[in-house]
Design goal:
The complex is a heterodimer of chains A (319) and B (691).
Chain A: H1 9-19, H2 26-30, H3 35-48, H4 57-65, E1 68-69, E2 74-75, H5 85-97, H6 106-114, H7 133-145, H8 154-163, H9 181-193, H10 202-210, H11 230-241, H12 250-259, E3 268-269, E4 276-277, H13 278-290, E5 299-300, E6 305-306, H14 307-315
Antiparallel strand pairs in A: 1-2, 3-4, 5-6
Chain B: H1 11-36, H2 42-54, H3 59-73, H4 79-99, H5 104-116, H6 123-136, H7 141-153, H8 158-171, H9 176-192, H10 200-217, H11 222-236, E1 243-247, E2 253-255, E3 262-263, E4 271-283, E5 291-294, E6 305-306, E7 315-323, E8 333-341, E9 344-349, E10 354-355, E11 359-367, H12 372-376, H13 418-434, H14 440-458, H15 467-483, H16 488-505, H17 507-510, E12 514-519, E13 522-529, E14 549-551, E15 571-573, E16 596-598, H18 628-635, H19 640-651, E17 657-659, H20 671-678, E18 684-685, E19 688-689
Parallel strand pairs in B: 2-3, 2-11, 13-14, 14-15, 15-16, 16-17, 17-18
Antiparallel strand pairs in B: 1-4, 4-7, 4-9, 5-8, 6-7, 8-11, 9-10, 12-13, 18-19
Classes of the chains: A mainly alpha (319), B alpha/beta (691).
């Protein structure tokens, strides 16, 4: 596969497992407040590489539950940090990976999320009231994984997302907000999960998204911006949900991602030769998964979890 | 970490980093401690300030400051003191934004403060801050969001904000954020019909000039091209939805035999579908918005259903099924049906404009009790072969095929105002000049302009008008495939639509692809063969509503969306295409008449990532609940997690013949059991008789 060679899966697994132990570096401390997101990125990557067993499940779940706020029903980004939907989704996703939703008071968590829906259908991220379509996605995704979508007004939630649709076919953080690939993923994902993709002009949005592919093969998040490995996920997953992923050149993108690997110490960076981090390692591997890279588990584009996990959640007999 | 170079730590760096880390660790611990103990002293607040200065993303520290602010403000009564408390917070935000101008927490803290409305807002300071920020990074979307927030907060007229966008665009044409804001503001002003914005024609002419200037300055910059596409869509889309096709067509006569009429196989099953096809997705078809008059007793509760994979309220294509099975008739009897749509506020497009071109058509159908031969024989008793080309139209009675269908309601469609056409023609001339530039955007825009022009020109007149435009744009798409190979398959998809347009817009040329398929003891089927044409997807299905047998084999089809409109389809050949999942076949579940399906040599089962997983109804999108078919399959030890898509497909079709060979999925155990279990009517599977 070109200059970047093959996926250094073993190295990435080692990188993820050891990142955990370098908690005291400045970089880790700056990210301390989003450690639960980090857990989701790292663990999902391990699962995609068939190495989830490299970690001790019980330990992980115990730590996850130590970020839980039983009085509100939400999760903080780390022990001692305030509850927010951003980390609640990560907690639920990690529990899904381990098939351990039983560790949760499902209704309590679902009520926390549902309680953040506003009159206009939008969602606040926490009690302080910041509104963003990211939170709409998080709420819808979390509730769906918990089989509790009926706790919110889905129609209003969908209407709010549609009100954030732009004339270029994309979506912004709020009505009038500029289209951005990350925000588009959130809105398309929320519409996909609620069976509402008909609100999207798939050709228009598909063209905008496929034009995110830059000359060097990587994807950017907005017109005239630099390519970045993280958009491999945001753009690809959106393109898959609207059935337009064939409009980009997958080989060139795979090469770009593989070129961003640190082949010595493991990990993937935003662009070639930059410093690696867990976030880009996840998005790089997830991007390869969406492109059916050999040896990587396929992923569900809407729930951002391995396909087998999502199929299990929605098709297992008890539900 | 965005944009930080990868390099090994130097020893002296390591020591400094260690000290830096220790400081941050202490700060974070202290702030969290103060947060948990609700300590809101000046000193404690100072620590949170220090933390946010280093790490503006530490969201709990922002929460802490809000709590502290609420706590401390309660003890203040002097407006000056309140103002100073607010200023302190605003300053923290500014310092944090200096560290990270994209900090969500910092921006929200500022909005939150303003929304408290505790003191008059110094808008000069706010806009000043924004100007500074957008000067450093004119694309900072947090900045633009905040600007929209401020404008709304203080009631700045949209006209003023529109002027700001032009300032930014004049600074640098390559500012997508400014173009975006312009499109939002302009559409609002046009909808509101604000003073100076009453004429869409005047505004869009000016905008075309503005953006063209930008495009000619730097044809490689994307910003202007997207804006141009938006202008084009605004100029070329019809003002109101229009009916462009129906089945049955006006004046047709249907029966089970075909001697003097059009053969309709579904009559055998006592069902008569009526299909209405609009030029854009509409909603609101009902027994009150569409009137149906017939000498056969028609139930008052006619249900019009949208025919689209998404099953949404809006669809181009709508169908109702008339029940004709329990009609009592002793001898040959003729019934007539009249359909009319008057001006209707109920039928509306996505953009909210309503249907305003009244249309009326009628047709007849014959039923006979004595026609037992036709009734009893299964039309697809014998294995259908696709190999032999049937006699062309010229050899048989032309009245067998209802080419009249192609004319339908075009004469009822309104002509657009000339302005649109003139505007587009001007643009075409302009881009023909630019286009030897080898700019892919220029070529693509020219192709889009040509197709938009074709659509307007053929509205209300003959479809043949489109042909020249189609040919020129086909050439452009072929060029684009060479010029920009990364997006090759986008251009191929666009080309596929134009190709189908070109093939079907000229009746004389189209006849070459049409024939009749004679079946033993039965009326012949209207047969269309569109093979080996490099089609990748289906377009202009409204011109194929009458087709009963469709051969699309040996193309590159990966999507068959659109075929759901073909409610007369009995036999379909999709062999040797690129269909990659059962979910991609969802349109076929809407065709009740479909009996024969050839899917040989496709890619079903090859791809772990299913790109139509969310387009078609599934438990993941909450459009299908766990169904009986899943249970039925579990009983036969079929893995539902593995086969859910096949189960949902085969549960909803009623095939007599199926060919699946040459797909990876056939190697899977249990597939055959699944198909036969869910499709009891199946007689032929992969060319072999099913017992």
């Amino acid at each position: 596969m070109g200059d970047g060679g093959e996926l250094a899966a073993e190295k990435h697994v080692r990188y993820i497992v050891t990142v955990e132990k370098r908690k005291d570096s400045f970089e880790s401390l700056v990210m301390e407040h989003i450690r639960l997101n980090g857990a989701y990125w790292g663990l999902t990557t391990l699962d995609l590489l068939h190495k989830l067993r490299a970690v001790e499940a019980d330990e992980v779940i115990e730590w996850i539950m130590s970020c839980y706020h039983p009085e509100s029903g939400g999760f903080g980004g780390n022990v001692g940090h305030d509850a927010h939907v951003l980390y609640t989704l990560s907690a639920v996703q990690v529990l899904c990976l381990f098939d351990r939703l039983d560790a949760l008071d499902v209704d309590k968590v679902a009520d926390y999320i549902a309680g953040l829906q506003n009159e206009d259908g939008s969602f606040s991220g926490d009690i302080w009231g910041e509104v963003d379509t990211r939170f709409s996605y998080i709420a819808i995704c979390t509730l769906s994984l918990l089989h509790r979508l009926e706790k919110i007004n889905v129609q209003k939630a969908v209407d709010y997302i549609v009100s954030c649709k732009n004339l270029d076919g994309g979506f912004g953080a709020m009505p009038g907000g500029e289209s951005h690939a990350g925000q588009i993923f959130c809105c398309v994902g929320a519409l996909a999960i609620t069976g509402s993709l008909h609100h999207i002009d798939r050709d228009l949005l598909g063209w905008w998204l496929c034009e995110r592919q830059c000359k060097e093969g990587g994807l950017n998040g907005r017109p005239e911006k630099l390519a970045d490995v993280c958009y491999s996920w945001w753009v690809l997953s959106s393109l898959i949900m609207i059935d337009r992923v064939h409009w980009i050149d997958k080989d060139k993108l795979a090469k770009f991602i593989l070129n961003c690997q640190d082949k010595e110490n493991g990990g993937i960076s935003d662009r070639p030769d930059n410093a690696v981090d867990i976030y880009h390692t996840y998005f790089g591997v997830a991007g390869l998964s969406l492109m059916e890279y050999p040896g990587v588990k396929p992923m569900d584009p809407a729930y951002a979890l391995p396909l087998d996990v999502v199929n299990r959640i929605f098709l297992r007999k008890e539900h | 970490m965005h944009g930080r170079p990868r390099r090994p730590d130097k020893p002296e760096d390591a020591a400094a980093a260690e000290a830096k880390a220790a400081k941050l660790r202490d700060l974070q611990a202290q702030v969290l401690h103060n947060h948990h103990s609700r300590t809101y002293t000046k000193e404690a607040l100072g620590l949170s300030f220090k933390l946010l200065e280093i790490n503006p993303e530490a969201y709990t520290a922002w929460n802490y400051r809000k709590l502290a602010f609420q706590h401390n403000i309660g003890e203040l009564s002097e407006p000056e003191a309140i103002k100073s408390a607010i200023d302190d917070e605003l300053r923290v935000v500014e310092v944090a934004l200096r560290q990270n101008p994209k900090s969500y927490g910092a921006w929200y803290h500022r909005k939150w403060l303003l929304n408290q409305k505790l003191a008059p807002v110094d808008f000069k300071r706010e806009f000043g801050l924004l100007d500074k920020l957008l000067k450093v990074d004119a694309r900072n979307f947090h900045g633009w969001n905040y600007r929209r927030f401020l404008a709304r907060f203080m009631g700045v007229p949209e006209e003023e904000e529109l002027k700001y966008t032009i300032d930014k665009i004049s600074d640098n044409f390559s500012n997508y954020s400014a173009w975006h804001n312009r499109s939002i503001l302009l559409s609002n002003l046009l909808i509101k019909q604000s003073k100076g914005f009453e004429s869409k024609q005047k505004i869009f002419s000016e905008e075309f000039e503005l953006v063209t200037q930008a495009l000619f300055t730097d044809p490689s910059d994307q910003s202007g091209w997207f804006y141009h596409l938006w202008l084009l869509a605004q100029t070329s889309s019809p003002e109101n939805p229009q009916l462009i096709a129906s089945w049955p067509s006006n004046g047709s006569n249907l029966s089970l035999s075909s001697l003097s009429s059009i053969c309709c196989y579904s009559l055998k099953e006592g069902i008569l579908p009526i299909v209405l096809y609009f030029n854009e997705p509409v909603k609101g078809l009902s027994s009150s918005s569409v009137s149906l008059n017939s000498d056969l007793v028609v139930s008052k509760n006619i249900q019009w259903r949208p025919l689209s994979v998404t099953d949404s309220g809006h669809s181009n294509c709508w169908v109702t099924y008339l029940e004709v099975s329990n009609l009592e008739c002793n001898s040959l009897q003729q019934f007539s049906v009249e359909v009319s749509i008057t001006n209707s506020d109920e039928i509306v497009s996505r953009s909210g404009s309503n249907y305003n071109c009244p249309v009326h058509f009628s047709f007849t159908f014959e039923l006979s009790n004595n026609d037992s031969t036709a009734k009893d024989i299964d039309p697809i008793h014998e294995l259908i072969s696709w190999d032999f080309s049937e006699p062309l139209l010229s050899h048989v009675n032309p009245s067998c095929i209802c080419f009249e269908q192609l004319k339908i309601t075009t004469s009822l469609v309104h002509k657009e105002s000339n302005w649109h056409l003139e505007r587009l023609s001007d643009e075409i001339d302009l881009f023909r000049e630019l286009h030897d530039d080898n700019s892919k955007f220029a070529k693509l825009t020219l192709a889009r302009l040509l197709l938009a022009c074709a659509a307007i020109k053929s509205r209300g007149s003959s479809l043949v008008e489109r042909k020249g435009y189609c040919e020129e744009s086909l050439g452009l798409f072929n060029d684009l495939i060479d010029l920009d190979p990364s997006h090759k398959r986008y251009y191929e998809d666009e080309r596929s639509l134009v190709l189908m347009d070109q093939l079907t817009c000229d009746m004389e040329a189209f006849k070459k692809y049409c024939s009749v398929k004679a079946l033993p003891k039965l009326a012949p089927l209207n047969h269309v063969q569109l093979c080996r044409l490099s089609l990748t997807r289906i377009g202009f299905a409204e011109r194929l509503l009458w087709v009963q047998m469709l051969d699309l084999s040996h193309n590159n089809l990966r999507s068959i969306e659109g075929l759901e409109a073909l409610q007369q389809l009995v036999c379909l050949n999709l062999g040797n295409n690129q269909i990659s999942s059962f979910t991609a076949l969802e349109p076929l579940t809407k065709i009740i008449s479909l009996k024969v399906l050839d899917l040989s040599c496709n890619e079903i089962g090859t791809h772990p990532i299913d790109t139509t997983r969310y387009i078609c109804p599934s438990p993941f999108s909450h459009r299908v609940e766990a169904c009986e078919a899943f249970e039925e399959c579990r009983k036969k030890n079929i893995n539902v997690e593995e086969f859910w898509d096949a189960i949902l497909f085969f549960k909803h079709v009623n095939l007599v013949q199926l060919c699946l060979e040459g797909n990876a999925v056939t190697n899977k155990e249990n597939l055959r059991t699944l198909v036969v279990t869910l499709n009891p009517s199946l007689k032929w599977f992969d060319g072999k008789f099913v017992h």
